[in-house]
């Protein structure tokens, strides 16, 4: 029986996660499996991998063939490195203590790389947030400037209209004052003319009476 180490899909549409399983190569992808070795979740950054390294290594020595994705996962978790070192021990190239030492060194380097990646991701996330905040602030400032620019001509036009109205009111008041002055002048002239006309009539009245007496 051909045995494979492969992924079995779970999760919802758009956000899948996978079980790492040992299954018969003839079985459907999401069908029956022989043993579950771990979980792979690609939705996090970096991806989350929970793997039983010892069981996986045992299946690899038994001849289970990982798929390409599972091989990458096994290499990332050190399964393939352990397999290489154990083969060296079996071939008497070095002893178990040396194999454990080499694996510890590899594991420390791998952990440092992972920590560096996480740090870079965190820094990149902070920079992206700062850039996004600056862009949002610029958009708000531009929007406020546009609104101010749009409202400024309206205020100026309103001020000009008020000034024009004040000038018109002053002109009307001045015209009315001139008209009133002219009316007063005309009234005084009429009064003076009437006085001049009545004065001779009063002077002529005694003369008429003298003429009547002389006639008698």
Short characterization:
This protein has helices spanning 53-61, 68-77, 79-90, 96-215, and strands spanning 3-12, 15-24, 35-41, 48-51, 65-66. It has 216 residues and is α+β, with helices and mostly antiparallel strands.
CATH architecture descriptor name of the largest domain: 2-Layer Sandwich
- The portion of residues assigned to helices is 55-70%
Task: Write down the secondary-structure element order.
Answer: EEEEHEHHH
Shape: rod-shaped
Q: Look at the helices and sheets and give the structural class.
A: alpha+beta
Extract low-pLDDT stretches. Answer: none
- How far the N terminus sits from the C terminus, by CA atoms, comes to 178 Å
Question: Could you please say which CATH topology of the largest domain applies here?
Answer: S16 Ribosomal Protein, Chain: A
Classify the oligomer: single chain
Describe this structure in words.
With 216 residues, this protein is an alpha+beta fold. The protein has two domains: 3-93, S16 Ribosomal Protein, Chain: A; 107-197. The chain is 70% helix and 15% strand. The chain contains four helices and five strands; from the N terminus they run ββββαβααα. Strands 4-3-2-1-5 form a five-stranded mixed sheet. α1 crosses α3 (79-90) and α3 packs antiparallel against α4 (96-215). It is rod-shaped. The N and C termini lie far apart (178 Å). The mean pLDDT is 79.
């Amino acid at each position: 029986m051909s045995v494979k180490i492969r992924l079995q899909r779970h999760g919802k549409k758009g956000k899948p996660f996978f079980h790492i399983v040992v299954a018969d190569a003839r079985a459907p992808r999401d069908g029956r499996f022989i043993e579950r070795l771990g979980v792979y979740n690609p939705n996090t950054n970096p991806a989350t991998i929970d793997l039983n390294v010892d069981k996986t290594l045992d299946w690899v020595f038994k001849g289970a063939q990982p798929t390409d994705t599972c091989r990458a996962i096994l290499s990332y978790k050190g399964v393939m490195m352990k397999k290489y070192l154990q083969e060296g021990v079996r071939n008497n190239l070095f002893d178990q203590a040396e194999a454990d030492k080499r694996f510890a060194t590899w594991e420390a380097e791998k952990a440092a790389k992972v920590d560096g990646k996480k740090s870079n991701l965190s820094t990149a996330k902070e920079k992206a947030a700062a850039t996004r905040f600056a862009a949002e602030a610029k958009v708000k400032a531009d929007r406020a400037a546009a609104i101010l620019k749009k409202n400024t001509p309206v205020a100026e036009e309103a001020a000009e209209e008020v000034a024009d109205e004040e000038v018109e009111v002053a002109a009307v008041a001045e015209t009315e004052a001139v008209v009133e002055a002219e009316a007063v002048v005309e009234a005084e002239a009429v009064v003076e003319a009437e006085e001049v006309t009545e004065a001779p009539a009063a002077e002529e009245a005694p003369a008429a009476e003298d003429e009547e007496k002389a006639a008698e």
